[in-house]
Amino acid sequence: MWRLYLLKFLATASAQIPSLGWCPDFQAMANFNMDRFLGTWYEAERYFTVSELGTRCVTTHYTATPEGRILITNEITNSITGFKRLMEGHLQMVGREGEGRVLVKYSSLPLPYDFEYSILDTDYDTYAVMWACSGIGPVHTQNTWLLSRERLPSMSVMQNAYAVLDKFKISRTFFQKTNQADCQFYQHRLPQMN
């Protein structure tokens, strides 16, 4: 049994910032509107993660199908090889009604992978702040992403995102800027909505 806990901890710690203590009790955004959140988001900054080491041009597309499913596609370019990989899956809202908590189920990876995170705040038009935390006993790992609707956001947009970090007392120490220069993105086709 302890081996299972150790494996889970190592898997999450390798992808996020490990810390002592329990996960903070951050409340996801209330009255979250997924329809307004749909579309393309560019990763502006993120906590260091091993899975994104050596990557650039990170973009996420949220689309709704006519059946009401929310699809997610992450585009990630390797900084050294220039190869682009896509991570595809679907998203479902979790938690209380209207709360910005989501569960993403990635289906395009060799092993299915589920990932839960919270949208702490967004204005839907310029920035979004996403956060995740998982813990085992008194040790937890956190990850935070600052997203923008623009590939190269203005300083005022970033100041709005930083204000959310300050509100939740999320340290900026581990943030890395995501290189979005000279990116070539796939033409992402949104499904026809009837």
Automatic annotation (TrEMBL):
Keywords: Disulfide bond, Signal
Signal sequence region: 1-15
A GO cellular component annotation in the UniProt record: cytoplasm
Name of one Pfam family that matches: Lipocalin_2
InterPro entries, per the entry: Calycin, Invtbrt_color, Lipocalin_ApoD, Lipocalin_CS, Lipocln_cytosolic_FA-bd_dom
Domain spans labelled Lipocalin/cytosolic fatty-acid binding: 33-156
GO molecular function: pigment binding
Source domain of life: Eukaryota
Record SUPFAM superfamilies: Lipocalins
Entry's Gene Ontology BP terms: lipid metabolic process; response to reactive oxygen species
Sequence similarity: Belongs to the calycin superfamily. Lipocalin family.
Protein name stated in the entry: Hyphantrin
Native source species: Hyphantria cunea (Fall webworm moth)
